[in-house]
Design brief:
The chain is of the alpha/beta class. It is built from 11 helices and 7 strands. The longest helix has 13 residues, at 31-43.
């Protein structure tokens, strides 16, 4: 799944999202208040300042809203903030066909995702509701407490299924996905849907595919 039109880092969307929150709850935030909140949230963004340990949404927004004169329920603020992003989730065309096939073959499927900064699992799960029934296990950075490339998320999965971590096959579309797999010493597959750049991306992955439709032949399943 991808959020249509969204870059890896969402920092540029913070200001408008906070303005929407300000309007919805009539908080009377000044421009200075909003800019300060943007800077605090930016400092918690793992794509801006590297970190592997995950922070909870409430911990982050407690810091973000501490200087506000009016206090509103944090969960309500967080929901409004992400509503202000006007996110448009889109499931890739090759996803459901692949998941159907893997389920038919009896292969265990887990998902491991780094949540956007301060996004609760509940919001993200709503956006992938169509996929959840396929997963034998859903793991997020909040679930396991760590962000990729830390291997703890993969350890969480291996322990859940009581399998050797080296027996996992991890598919991702970023460098941190490949590094996480290498840290866990399991097979890494980079999915690069931009075929024209196929030869230009080498993060040390074991295999590269351009579509999940290639997975069946690659894994001989």
């Amino acid at each position: 799944m991808e959020y249509k039109g969204m870059p890896h880092s969402w920092v540029e969307y913070y200001e408008d999202a906070f303005k929407a929150v300000n309007l919805e709850f009539k908080l009377d935030l000044t421009e200075k208040d909003i800019q300060k909140s943007c800077e605090i949230l930016k400092s918690k963004n793992a794509r801006v300042i590297y970190r592997e340990i995950e922070y909870t949404p409430n911990d982050i927004f407690s810091a973000v809203t501490e200087h506000w004169n009016k206090k509103v329920d944090l969960d309500a603020i967080i929901n409004s903030f992400y509503k202000g992003h006007e996110l448009k989730p889109a499931i890739y065309d090759d996803t459901l066909v692949c998941l159907d096939y893997l389920k038919e073959k009896g292969i265990k499927i887990a998902t491991l995702t780094d949540l956007p900064t301060a996004m609760p699992d509940e919001i993200f799960k709503q956006d992938i509701a169509e996929l959840l029934e396929y997963f034998d296990l859903y793991v997020s950075s909040l679930t396991c407490g760590y962000r990729k490339p830390n291997k703890n998320g993969l350890m969480f999965i291996s322990e859940h299924f009581n399998v050797n971590i080296q027996d996992l096959i991890f598919i991702g579309d970023e460098e941190k996905d490949v590094i996480a797999a290498k840290n866990a010493k399991c097979i890494s597959i980079l999915i690069n849907r931009s075929a024209k750049e196929l030869d230009q991306i080498n993060y040390g992955q074991d295999f590269t595919i351009t579509s999940l439709s290639e997975l069946r032949e690659l894994l001989n399943i």
